[in-house]
Design brief:
Layout lengths: L3 H6 L20 H10 L2 H5 L2 H14 L4 E3 L6 H5 L5 E3 L3 E3 L6 H5 L6 H4 L1 H13 L4 E7 L1 H10 L7 H9 L1 H25 L3 E6 L7 H22 L4 E6 L6 H8 L3 E3 L6 H7 L5 E6 L1 H6 L1 H15 L4 E5 L9 H12 L2
Parallel strand pairs: 1-4, 4-5, 5-6, 6-7, 7-8, 8-9
Antiparallel strand pairs: 2-3
Helix pairs in contact: 2-4, 4-8, 9-10, 9-11, 10-11, 11-12, 12-13, 16-17
The structure holds coproporphyrinogen I.
């Protein structure tokens, strides 16, 4: 029997829709905070298969999610390529920024296979315990990963990476090629280890002009989709070009993704008209409506469900769950969707 999420991603209008939530494992859950404290730092948690598998499955024990998403981080790829990474407590990720050819040359793809071994072990452990739910593997999209590699941290404007993309196109192209090839290898390894669906997170796709969006978001995504399709024709691929706005149509048509995840700002009616009917949509409840709960949560959820009904669709948020989210609001959301 095909699982509910894969049916929707194959183009079936499953109702009530399958549901999972971006960042569904994480700090809003007390049981996550407990395991996180035991692991020590965040990278230790991501590379301890038994603990990472445990936190991956925690949201499924509490709620009837249709999917588990591998517990890891998009920045484990630069880490695996040898770029230093640390998670400063309360401040987020820090990497030594790549600003020149020496920085690009120092990346070492030959380290990848051994570095990701513990993450693949997590995939195998989760797959063995996931039951009727779907295991989603993931990576950042090359552009978003490159944003952190060049900036060295999250920023508001991503000024250095944009300046490099416009002003040093050859150097930036080299970096993008290394990250794209590594992403293909990394996702293929996750699929071999047991990931049933994979997702590409392009959280900062929206900072580029339409021209560079095509070069650094659409084309690398297409390259990844083509490479994975050749090897794994049945594996579904979800793309999340956050902030793409009107560029969503070209992205959906050209990349070949099985589903497009839409961010909070996208009108579902626009997404329905812009994305071909055989490509599933996923999203896009505002994570803050989930924090607020009550009538606002019910109203926003109904609006999305009413718009998406009759089309291949997966319920999700428009961006990740925030740590302030009351766990009981997630339970209320799940009941609401199931009874719609
Ligand atoms: O202290 C902690 O416990 C660390 C918080 C945390 C968590 C729970 C980070 C640091 N990463 C994660 C897990 C994570 N990240 C998952 C696993 C799935 C799950 O939790 O259910 C996934 C899919 C991600 C993806 C991710 N990491 C993205 C793309 C999605 C998005 O939210 O836009 C991005 C941009 C990151 C980078 C990152 N990792 C962590 C933080 C705080 C950040 C954002 C840094 C910034 O821009 O300031």
């Amino acid at each position: 029997m095909t699982k509910r999420l894969q049916r929707a991603l194959a183009g079936e209008a499953v109702w009530p829709p399958p549901v999972w939530l971006m960042r569904q494992a994480g700090r809003y859950l007390p049981e996550y905070r407990e395991v996180r404290a035991r692991a020590g730092d965040f990278i230790s948690l991501c590379t301890a298969p038994a603990l990472a598998a445990e936190v991956t499955l925690q949201p499924l024990r509490r709620y009837e999610m249709d999917a588990a998403i591998l517990f890891s981080d998009i920045l484990m790829l630069p880490w695996a390529l040898g770029q230093g990474l640390r998670f400063a407590e309360g401040e987020g990720p820090r990497l030594p920024p790549i600003r020149d050819a020496a920085g690009v040359d120092a990346l070492d793809p030959s380290r990848l296979a051994s570095a990701i071994a513990p993450i693949l072990e997590t995939v195998r452990l989760v797959r063995a315990g996931v039951g009727d739910a779907t295991l989603i593997g993931f990576a950042g999209s090359p552009f978003t990963v490159a944003c952190y590699m060049v900036e060295g941290q999250g920023t508001k404007e991503f000024a250095h990476v944009r300046r490099m993309a416009y002003g040093q196109p050859r150097l930036f192209g080299q970096l993008m090629d290394i990250v794209t090839a590594a992403t293909i290898e990394y996702l293929a390894a996750q699929i071999v280890a047991g990931a049933e669906v994979v997702m590409l997170f392009d959280s900062w796709a929206g900072v580029l002009s339409p021209h560079l969006f095509h070069t650094h978001v659409t084309l690398p995504t297409k390259r990844i989709v083509d490479a994975l399709r050749t090897r794994f024709p049945d594996t579904k691929i979800i793309g999340f070009p956050r902030g793409a706005g009107t560029l969503l149509a070209g992205y959906a048509a050209e990349t070949g993704v099985s589903a497009v995840a839409i961010d909070t700002g996208v009108d579902p009616a626009f997404a329905i008209s812009a994305v071909p009917g055989n490509v599933a949509l996923q999203g896009n409840l505002d994570p803050m409506a989930l924090v607020a709960g009550g009538d606002a949560l019910a109203r926003e959820t109904n609006g999305i469900l009413d718009a998406m009904r009759g089309r291949p669709y997966v319920f999700n948020l428009g961006h990740g769950i925030v740590p302030e989210t009351p766990p009981e609001h997630v339970a209320a959301l799940m009941r609401h969707i199931r009874s719609h």
